Amino acid sequence: MTTLAAQLAQWAAGLAPTDQDLELADRSLLDTLAVTVAATDDPIRQVAADLPEAARWATLGHVLDFDDLHMESTTHISVVTVPTVLAAGGGARAYLAAAGVMARLGTALGWPHYSSGWHATCTAGAPAAAVGAAVSLGLDADGIARAIALAVPGAGGVQRAFGTSAKSLQVGFAAEAGLRAARLAAAGATADLTALDQWLALVGGDPARADLSGPAVPGGLAIKVYPCCYALQRPISAVRDLLDGGVQPGDVDRIRLRTPAGTVQPLIHSRPGTGLEGKFSLEYSVVAALLDRYPGFASFTDDAVRRPEVRDLVEKVDIELTEGGDWLLTGTLDVELVLRDGSTRTTGLDLPPGSPGRPPSPEEMAAKVRDCAGPAADAVQQVTWADAADFLRTTVDRAPMSHAPVSASAASTEAS
C-alpha cells in the first residue's frame, strides 16, 4: 500500500505550476510580506528574536492575524510555507508544492479535527513546511517523503493558544519543524513513511480526503480585509453594511446575530481584555465595527478593547447559534440592528470581501499593502521570490526595536 507521505511527495516532486498557480504564489508572497512588515513593531518581535529565520518570520507574519487562509482546510497556509521556503532558499514552485500539500493534508484532517480544538495551521503546517523546504533543497520524491515523516513530531498546536503569544509562536514552531525535517532528510536521515498515516488516524483524519487533482491550491486562498480571525470577517462586513445612512453607536439598542455554531469555533473570548483576545471575540468585533466603522490595527489594541463604551455595547449583543456548520463560512450570517427609535436594520451575508468567491481587486490588495507597510509599501510591491529572503533580513530583522523585552510578569498577565 502506498503511504500518504509517498503520494504527497510524488505530487510535490512532479508539480508543474500553471500561470494561475504562479499568480496565486505571487499574491501570497505579497500578502505575507505586507503583514510581516506590519508587525515589525509588535512586542512579539523581541520575544521571537532568538528563533531561527523560518520560525521568526512565521511568528511575526501571523501575530496580527491578517494573513491569508485556505477555507476548506481552515489553515493559514502562506504564513507557514512562505517563510519556510524563503529560509531554505526556494521560490514560487516550492511554495506551491508546500501550499498544495498543506491544503490537502488540512482537508484530510477535516473539520472534526479543527472543531475538536486542534490548530490545523500547525498540525497540517509542519509536514507541509517540510515539503516546501525539501523542494527548495532539491530533494527527490523519496527525500520529500522522508521529510514529511520526520516532521510529524512537530505537527501540534491547539486553539486554547488563541488570544496569546502562543498562537503565533506555535505557527513559527511548525515552520521550523518542517525546515529541520527537510534538512535532516537531506543529510540522510531515515524515517518510516507510515508515520504520517498513523498520526493522521490518531488525530481523526482521513487520507481518502486528500485529493491530489486540481490546481496547486484547490479552492484558492482567502485574503483578509480586517486584521483579526477569519471567523470575524463576515460579522464585521455585515455590520458595516448596515451603517450606511449615519447610524451612530448611541442609536443602537440591540445587536442580534444568528449564525451556525460551527462558524464561531475559534471565537473563544466573549469578553476580551486584550487586543489579542479581541481578535477572537464575536461580541467585540461587531462592537468595533459599530464604533470604528473600519476595524483596523487601532481597533485591536489593549486600549481599544478596554474602552468604556465597548463594555456597554458588548452587553447589547445577542447571539443565536443554530445547529451545525462544517467550516467558517457555513450558511448565512444574519444581523439585525435594533435602534432606539424602534426601527430595525437587517442583512444577511454569505461571503465576506476577500473570500475566494469575492477575491480582492489589485487596487484592494495595493490598499492593504499600504495599510500594512506604510512608507515601505512601494518596496514591498517590488519584491520577488528571488530577493524576498534578503528583503526580510534587511527590512524586518534589522529594523530598530521599538519594544523592550516582555518580562516574565507581563507574559504571565498576557496569557491569563
TrEMBL record:
Region feature (Disordered): 344-365
GO molecular function: lyase activity
Ranges of residues in domain MmgE/PrpD C-terminal: 226-382
Domain of life: Bacteria
Regions of compositional bias (Pro residues) in chain numbering: 353-362
MmgE/PrpD N-terminal domain sequence ranges: 58-197
Family (UniProt): Belongs to the PrpD family.
PANTHER family: 2-METHYLCITRATE DEHYDRATASE, 2-METHYLCITRATE DEHYDRATASE-RELATED
UniProt-recorded name of the protein: 2-methylcitrate dehydratase PrpD
Origin species: Blastococcus saxobsidens
